[in-house]
Structure to design on (98 residues):
């Protein structure tokens, strides 16, 4: 399944590559440590939050969109401490277990 995007939008992979290049430049010659884990820890929480918002906080739909099992999604939400208050932004209690 491919996502539709406008012709003036650059691919996600290009944005990620630019961010990684910026990160390496910011190291000023220092060696990175555990880069893979660092990148996943930075990318996964906003990915999960945005997908849940897109799916109106419906975990089953979000898991489907992400291509994950619902139990795996719930595990990742706990791992990153993502709950109703971290998603709503408005202070409203959004139900996550729909």
């Amino acid at each position: 399944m491919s996502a539709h995007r406008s012709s003036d939008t650059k691919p996600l992979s290009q944005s990620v590559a630019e961010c990684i290049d910026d990160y390496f430049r910011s190291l000023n010659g220092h060696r990175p440590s555990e880069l893979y884990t660092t990148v996943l820890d930075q990318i996964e929480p906003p990915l999960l939050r945005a997908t849940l918002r897109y799916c109106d906080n419906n975990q089953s739909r979000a898991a489907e969109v992400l291509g994950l099992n619902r139990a795996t999604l719930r595990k990742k939400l706990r791992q990153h401490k993502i709950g109703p208050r971290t998603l709503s932004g408005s202070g409203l209690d959004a139900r996550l277990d729909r």
Q: What stands out?
A: The first helix runs from residue 12 to 26.
